[in-house]
Amino acid sequence: MSVLGVTAIVVFGVASVVTGWLVFRTDSMVRAAYWLMASFVGVGAMLVTLDSQFLGLILILMMAGEMTIMAIFMVMYMMNPAGLNPMVMVHQHRTAIAAGVGSFLLLATVALVADFPADPAPAGADPTAELGFELLGRSMLVFESAGVALLAVMIGAVAVAGKWGRFGDADAGSVEPPLDPEEAAS
Amino acid sequence: MNPVVSVLFVGGVLGVGAYVVAVLDRAFGPVSRGPRDWFVWPIRRAAFLAVQRRTETERPDAEAWILAPALLAALAAVGLTAVPVTPSLAVADVSAGVVLFGAAMIIVMVAVFLQGWSPNSLFPLIGAYRFAAMALSFGIPFSLVVLTTAIPAESLSVGAIVASQEGLWNVVRQPLGLPVYLVTGAAVAFWGPFRIPEGTDLAGGAVLEASGSVRAVWRIARAGVLVTLSVMGAAIFLGGHLGPVLPGWAWTALKTLVLLAVFVWSGHAFARMRVERFVWFGWVVLLPVALVDVFASGILAL
């Protein structure tokens, strides 16, 4: 790999780690979500640099939507509706520190002990096509099961969230209950 | 392409394109509203915004507020780099070009959300939530119709997709593609009937508190997104630089102009849609149509 490529990987890697750290240093939920997205964009950029363009770009594409949904849900469950007022983003400090140090040691051990393969991909190989053959070849059963399940969930979600329901159209608006109990019972 | 030339090229295309969008927008607007100052009006408007005083709000997220217009402009630029203007001239005709474009256009959601959320103000925040709901509804159909154009080309590179339309343009081969692309594309740029996050019912919505140069950059960036969508639409549906007699760049420019005019015209031809109607429309109409487009193109390719 060229000097430029190695430099790019190091820069994107450091940026990923720093933005990942900032997720826990910020005092706002929306900022935390988008720092996490920045961290994933860094990982995606590293994949692109490693000649895995499709996977890297798909990762970035997916993260934009996911992090926005996460930000909205986090804000929704909070008492301050805009999520702008500063708040402490971390809790259970002792457990969190223990879990953090523990998982770092575990992953570091794996990185040092594991015997990583060192066979460079043949020049001129098309990673996207290789990925396609993998998905529709050896791993077909796994990915097609997951794919069909996700498609079913999508169709189900559309049906559930669709305009028509047992109580009429979703966008028809609600009707105020009548004040007279006799009328309400009928 | 040389890096310096690339930056000048992308900046130039987006700048000229944004000016054309502003001129067309004025020209298509109701004539009774003002004089026919189509070519001067954008410059006058930009000069006004350049000297306008910045609005201040209580405890905004200042960094995100400044970064949101810059992010939108950057996304327009990134999307543009993947398109070859002539058979040999592209900033970077990368092997996964349409995915790069799709990723850039989906992240527009982040830019609009930040723009609405960061001023710490009610109406912009509602605009931001509206766009999130919209983006989740148009995101899948938009990505599907864009990626479907890769099926006949058997490649995700925009150059290969243009080359695959030598005999027959994708607008004919995939008749459902361009209509869905135009509708979802206008929604990506929250333009025309989909000016939902910036609707007048929210007094300007996401962009309400933005003023002065920041608002100018936001407007230029949004027009830039529209330009990028038109350039890419021309490349993947209308055969890009392919065409008789005229040179390649002229065909690209001509087809881009046609799509740009359709996008801008839609803003004056259709009323703004309500967000809940759009969400329904996205999931119940656009998504099935886009899926049919994928299946039909797949069957044709077999």
How would you describe the overall organization of this protein?
Chain A is mostly helical and 186 residues long. Chain A contains seven helices and two strands; from the N terminus they run H-H-H-H-H-H-E-E-H. Chain B has one domain. Helix content of chain B is 68%, strand content 0%. Chain B contains twelve helices and no strands. At the A-B interface, helix 2 and helix 3 of A face helix 4, helix 5 and helix 12 of B.
Topology:
The complex is a heterodimer of chains A (about 190) and B (about 300).
Chain A: H1 3-25, H2 29-49, H3 53-76, H4 93-113, H5 127-135, H6 140-161, E1 164-165, E2 168-169, H7 181-185
Antiparallel strand pairs in A: 1-2
Helix pairs in contact in A: 1-2, 2-3
Chain B: H1 3-28, H2 41-51, H3 62-81, H4 97-117, H5 122-148, H6 150-153, H7 158-163, H8 170-173, H9 177-188, H10 212-237, H11 248-269, H12 275-301
Helix pairs in contact in B: 1-3, 1-10, 1-11, 2-10, 3-4, 3-10, 4-5, 5-9, 5-12, 9-10, 10-11
